[in-house]
What we know:
α1 (20-31) runs parallel beside α2 and α3 runs parallel beside α4. The chain has a single domain (11-248), classed as NAD(P)-binding Rossmann-like Domain (Rossmann fold). The chain is built from eight helices and seven strands, in the order βαβαβαβαβαβαααβ. The longest helix is centred in the middle third of the chain and has 29 residues, at 105-133. A seven-stranded parallel beta sheet has the order 3-2-1-4-5-6-7, sandwiched between helices. The chain starts with 10 loop residues before the first strand and ends in a 7-residue tail after the last strand. It is α/β, with parallel strands linked by helices.
Amino acid sequence: xxxAGRLEGKVAIVTGAATGIGRAxxxxxxxEGARLIISTSRNMAALxxxxxxxxxxxxxxxxxxxxxxxxxxLVDAAVERFGKLDILCNNAGIFIASPVIDMTEADWxxxxxxxxxxxxxxxxxxxxxxxxxxxxxxxxxxxVNSFVGEPQxxxxxxxxxxxxxxxxxxxxxxxRDGIRANVVCPGWIDTPMSSSVVEHLGGYEExxxxxxxxxxxxxGQPEQVATAAVFLASDEASLITGTDLRVDGGxxxx
Length: 254
């Protein structure tokens, strides 16, 4: 007898689902029985690929979750198409390398808007629907940079630190409503977002050597992050809220 998926009957939103971690989470959610709204702000061709990989469980929408109207549209789409909303996974994120002395205001605003303001906006519009549903789970994607600073990425670190503390506050505000909020904090993961770093280091093999000095288990894969997201989204994590799950290969253990 085939077991029921851990997210059977649940409705989820996954932002930034075109590639990398977001795609892996969307596919994993679908495999566990969820129906999904998935989004990207730009790469619709790639998002359509994710939609296909989800095997009919996902519906793709172009939306920039850092804009209030788009964030609300994602939530409205979930409710209109599937009747409710149980899970929100805020994965959309960007980074731009720049020392603070050279950082432009536009770069600062864009990173903070996508990585932090977008989490606020989607959460703001998702919460009323989760209240109607009698509970829910919010899984935000943070980073090792939620805890550890890094040169050239002050705006990224500020945004990911903000995601962690925002999530803790939401968890405390809505614990009695049956709404949980947690953060998955990946380390160095093999995604298109990190490809420029790998290329700069001379390829994947060289990057693994560098990674081993900061991340003992080496560079991770998006599916390893998705496993953590599924757990936190599921009822298996029913007593877990306001915390972080570090999928970082030992990065922050040092």
